[in-house]
Amino acid sequence: MTDQWHESFARLLVERGVAPGEARRLAADSRDEARAAGLPPAELFGPAAAYAAGIARAARPAPLAALPRARGPVVLRLTGVTKRYRRREVLRGVDLTLRAGEVAAVVGANGSGKSTLLDICAGASKATSGLVERTARIGYAPQQHGTAPYLTADEHFRLFGGAHGMGAKRAVATGTHLAAGLGWRPRAGTVAAQLSGGTRQKLNVVLGELHRPDLILLDEPYQGFDQDSYLDLWSQVYAWRDAGAGVLVVTHLLHDLDRVDHVLELKGAEDR
Amino acid sequence: MRQQWLHGFLDLCLLCLLLERRDYGVGLAQRLARSGFGDIPGGTLYPSLLRLEKQSLVRADWAASDVGPRRKYYELTAEGRAAAAERVAVWREFRDVMDRMTAATEVERP
Q1: Rounded CA gap, A79 and A7, in Å?
Q2: With an 8 Å Cβ cutoff, are A44 and B71 in contact?
Q3: CB distance A33 to B73 below 8 Å
Q4: B8 CA to chain A: closest CA distance, Å?
Q5: pLDDT bracket for residue A270 (50, 70, 90)
Q6: With an 8 Å Cβ cutoff, are A33 and B46 in contact?
Q7: String of b and e for A3-30 (b: at least 16 CB within 10 Å)?
Q8: Are strands B58-63 and B71-76 parallel, antiparallel or unpaired?
Q9: DSSP-derived 3-state class of residue A51
Q10: Domain A121-269 belongs to what topology?
Q11: Domains, chain B, ordered by start
């Protein structure tokens, strides 16, 4: 029973992004600590899963200090962007200027065109009218698509890294480090289709940052992400900003928006 | 509500206790309980200690014990002592503001 607790604790730490060596050390520490206290681990620390989450958060390195990028220039400018599907108007006259080192949050009800706007910024969809100007080096982490179901995480890192001229080794190392920052350690042999929705979104986020783009377009996950992962994601967003990237986040939850630089509220088409 | 507040102040409490003297986990839990904080679950205490260790405010060492199993002892680093002093000053300032804020409210006890 006690051994089982320690074994699952060590395994859960690794799943939460702690390096295997350090996870072993922490598990041995907990074993000794429980022995010193003369209590079974479940009584001293509580359930293994909850304790692993707490310890992994405490043990996690600070978000990856990204390489400094040039600060200040405009990385995205939207002028009067409008999108119509047949007669239905999804976006009307959207204006936004986002500079390097700034975060913009896009908020609005379901169906207000948030994801459509993100696609337009990425160039995956065309605005019906208006002007989209942006930097060439973008990272794009959409909600739905973006990963290949039959490739593993490492294969994704190599593929996306290669597309930006990174060596395979560096791409995998950078991807693994970024994943750890989000509390995730990719397992060898597991393909994207086998990942949970929340973990697949972490893969998307990592791929979006892999080549240190000047503009990151992010569709915030709202399914399958637990509270810790959610906070990790936002601390990562601010780390990217501090490193000089411009970040556009489509947010589905009413997150504490005090720290973002711009809030762009989209009104649903039905409001007009 | 108490529990939530304590969560926010646990790091500072630990720094203060360790400023007094080095101690091990169970000893710290007992001293917190004696101070009036009640039982602090290990699931809260140990992550806090690990965080302080990662921030280099606390140094941890396993020490063999004559009587029982080895124990992990925690003590403040120089950085930890400076952080304790700084955070206590911030806390005092904050406490004074809260005292002024709540002074007007005579709490009626049932």
Answers
A1: 56
A2: no
A3: no
A4: 14
A5: very low
A6: yes
A7: eebbebbbebbbbbbbeeeebeebbebb
A8: antiparallel
A9: helix
A10: Rossmann fold (3.40.50)
A11: 2-103 (1.10.10.10)
Domain ranges of chain A: 2-59, 121-269
Beta strands in chain A (DSSP E): 74-85, 88-99, 103-107, 129-134, 138-141, 215-219, 246-250, 262-265
Altogether, the residues listed in chain A come to a count of 272
The answer to whether A24 and B22 are in contact (CB under 8 A) is no
Given a cut of 80, whether residue A155 has pLDDT beyond it is yes
3-state DSSP assignment of residue A180: helix
Contacting residues of B for A26, CB less than 8 Å apart: 50
ipTM of this predicted structure: 0.78
For residue range A70-114, what is the model confidence (pLDDT) as tens digits? 558 899 999 999 999 888 889 999 999 999 989 999 988 888 888
DSSP H helices, chain B, are 2-20, 25-32, 42-54, 78-103
Angstrom distance (rounded) from CA A136 to CA B14: 49
Q: What is the pLDDT of residues A192-229, one digit of tens each?
A: 888 887 788 888 888 888 888 889 888 876 665 666 66
Compute the nearest-CA separation of B98 from chain A (Å). 23
